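Input.
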Amino acid sequence: MDTPQTPLPAAGRTILVVEDEHFISELYVRALSRAGYDVTVEVDGKEGMEQALTDKFDIILLDLMIPTMTGIDVLRKLRGPGAKPLHSKIVITTNLEQREETRADIESHADAYLVKAEITPRELVEFLSTIK
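Output.
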């Protein structure tokens, strides 16, 4: 069983949200901003990857189904062989059901994997506060 981690203060922490669903990104922005995070939103994979490569974000929330480049492709470019090391933690967010081996592959490259339908914005903020 995991031991509870001490929440980190959100003030000054930066988050990149790569999410094309406007309603979901608005919920995230509202909750994360209220908690003190500095939030940037990108709605497609190519722009999200370009932002991620700046390495100015503490956390990247990366949806899997986004236009121009899938979240899986972005993740592989950011964390695959030959990728430039980033300090950002990458949290996959999806509502897609994944085959067990596909999910395991994704999780091996990401720092966390969340199913959007199973987590409220408040729970998301609480979860992110434990990421170091």
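The radius of gyration is 14 Å.
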